[in-house]
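Dear Dr. L.,

I hope this message finds you well. Following up on our conversation about the binding site, I have prepared a predicted three-dimensional model of the protein together with iron/sulfur cluster. For your records, I am including the exact sequence and ligand specification that went into the calculation, followed by the structure tokens. Please feel free to forward this to your student if that is useful.
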Amino acid sequence: MRTPVAVIKCDDYREEQVDSAVRRGVKLLGGIETFCKEGERVVLKPNLLIGDKPGKCVTTHPSVFQAVAKLFQEAGADLFYGDSPGAGKPERAAKGAGIKDVADKLGIPPADFSTTVKITYPQALIAKQLPLAAGVLDSALISISKMKTHGFTRITGAVKNQFGCIPGLRKGEFHVKMPDTYQFSSVLVDINRFLSPRLCIMDGIIAMEGNGPRGGTPKAMNVLLFSGDPVALDSVFCKLINMKPDYVPFLKIGKEAGLGTYLENEIELIGDPIEDLIDLDFEAVRRPPDRMASSKSFPVFLKNLISPKPLIDYNRCTNCGTCVKQCPVNPRAVDWPDHKAKEKPLFNYKRCIRCYCCQEMCPERAISIKTPFLGKLIHR
Ligand code: SF4
Ligand code: SF4
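The resulting structure of the complex is given below.
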């Protein structure tokens, strides 16, 4: 039996449009009763990243969150919501992204995404201890991700969305412990296998291309995706942007670990014809992540000659310090000269593990990832 993924065309964020598209997508997968029982505790997990306003297209749009929430409320779910942002408090990020206002209007309380509960998970590929948000445990998890590019994992969507179930700065610890993209992807697969999201929905009405997940360019893709399988859903996202799923390590690792499937012949597309929605020009990096970039054993001078590195555009940089605060290595690989915020930050590439957290969180789109000339020749 093939894994169903519903592809629903939706041209804009008007409430009636989105409500009807969400209802149709869930119905095609068997109806809301397939995904929750009356009185069951259900947590909706949008992508809040750092709480940018909806117009920036960084976060799950409030109208998508609202349509999903209404459907689960009608089914009698005991509904909560939340995400742990890359920086700051969950409530603040939810307010900024317009999600809190919707939740307050519908009477949905926040789940606890600040308290960490250490979980032992012997079946894990790599993360046998998982520090998870207390609020997502013992609940049915509904993942409502945003369709975006990502510097470290190529894309962020259904699978990566669950990384926000790790509270606060604990996320950075994983980057330090598992700097290799493939190791990190195994952690993502472990989190997903443990939490087992019951339904994954992706907001691709206006996606983000280029320098994502925060500094890219909004791009209308006019689509919502639905599936019980986060791997299959991300594989369909890849198809929509003309990206080989092989370039996204957590898809292959997820398949091997039994999380889901990315293989086209094992996925059943339902809903609207996908051919009309594919964007061959979607700006994304179409090659596998560079393993040398994060290898501890690779000589640093060669790494700096070959591996993609973060660069600051000082014309855009406002010296806000977000990149400095986000850098997870100690001592930091991006810092102010003499640790004083008088001048703009500089990189120390000898220390940099190429996690691209700085690029991910820069609010001014001032950090991009550039591949050195030699690296470009080799990757070609
Ligand atoms: S996060 Fe961006 S704007 Fe802020 S200091 Fe770093 S490079 Fe400059
Ligand atoms: S400088 Fe940026 S890419 Fe390098 S380790 Fe720090 S956050 Fe990661």
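In brief: The mean pLDDT is 95.

With kind regards,
A. P.
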